[in-house]
Specification:
- This protein is α+β, with helices and mostly antiparallel strands.
- 39% of the residues lie in helices and 21% in strands.
- It has an 8-stranded mixed β-sheet with strand order 1-5-6-11-10-9-7-8.
- The longest helix has 17 residues, at 16-32.
- It is elongated.
- Bound molecules: histidyl-adenosine monophosphate.
- Histidyl-adenosine monophosphate (HAM) binds at residues 80-82, 111, 113, 118-120, 123, 125, 127, 129, 257-258, 278-283, 301-303, 305, 307-308.
Amino acid sequence: MIQLIRGFKDILPGEVELWQHIEKTARSLFEDFGFKEIRIPILEHAELFARSIGEDTDIVEKEMYTFPDKKRGLITLRPEATASVVRAYIQHTLYAKDPIQKFYTIGPMFRRERPQKGRYRQFYQINAEVFGIDSPLIDAQLIFMIMTFFSRLSVTGLEAHINSLGCHKCRRNFKDALSVFLSAASEKLCTDCKRRSLRNPLRVLDCKVPSCKEAMVEAPSILDYLCPECTMHFNAVKDALKKFNIPFVIDRLLVRGLDYYTRTTFEIQTGSLGAQNAVAGGGRYDTLVKTLGGPDQPAIGFAIGFDRLVEITDLKSADFVRKPDIFLAALGEKSMSIAFEWFCAFGVDGIKAELDLNGRSLKSQMKRADKLGAGYVLIVGKKELEEGSVILRNMTTKEQTAIPIDNIVEKIKKIIDHELHGYIKR
Ligand code: HAM
């Protein structure tokens, strides 16, 4: 039997209802905060990711699904969404109408990492990106928005980690100090980091190899190298977070695994996922729009790991499964043909109906209605049709009522609407 590719998964009915609920909650909250949905392609030119995420990052070096297209060079299954959203902002000159734009996008990403709990090769992200706003208030507002989102979804035990990577000016001085430190610590570093310490020293701070992690404890802190403007910006982010009552930890090693970040970076971490403890990550990327050929516009965003969120929420998919409002139990050919018409009419009217098209016995149909959790069963038998009425059984109270068959769909809709929504019509 052909099985799934390692690191990929199916999201089955029974699980998918929770995913749908999370997606609905995200859309509603993000739109209330002024974000609009943007849908971007899954395939992009490989160069887009190499230029934005950075050639010397793990993602670009080892994890991208890149293959040659027939005519157009190398193409890549997107490992993240930010680069594509920036490309779209530039390509469609969205900044010309208004440089301030807020987007969200939800969908699958692909990274060829070693699969483990909370780490997949196809995973899903909920992204938000803001363009054209320099103010540190937006940095704090995004973290506030993520925390509100998690609390709506009954996720607890989270910790916000923040850092500032400064601007290119402060980064230059820091890189010099870091390079001096790294050359002294060279023997303790892994082979990748020995190379990185020359080409892109910041990446060493991010390495997950234990010996590198240990060596980095003594590394200089970027926060000691921030210029006055970046210090002010970071202080204002912290002040705003305090105003929102969001506890945070300053994490000077939080450089994130992508090269485009400037100034504020953040991660929301959980204690309940083992090594894969980040459920969301983001930060500013004030120079990326310009680097990719657009105007000089600041930007900031984040991505929430959808799969990880599903694993840590207390919500259960079963609570979001919609059970049938009514089960039509038809007995005999003529009844089936009438019940079939009603079955379709219920669907059109927004009533969730089920009909056993296999024409089994009443007993087995009742069993199935019970198993599906139907609210009502409508018994459509030969005798009932001859008498011009059908029997409606309330599956909770077990009460049975005979209802004349004229306008039956409308009558039942009224009963169900009344039960589900009081007297308010849908
Ligand atoms: P990232 O930290 O690479 O950032 O990913 C964001 C989140 O996606 C992580 O915190 C994690 O929850 C989830 N994630 C990442 N890789 C995997 C995986 N292999 N399996 C399951 N979940 C995973 C970005 O992608 C940036 N584009 C975020 C951003 C948006 N920065 C600015 N705007």
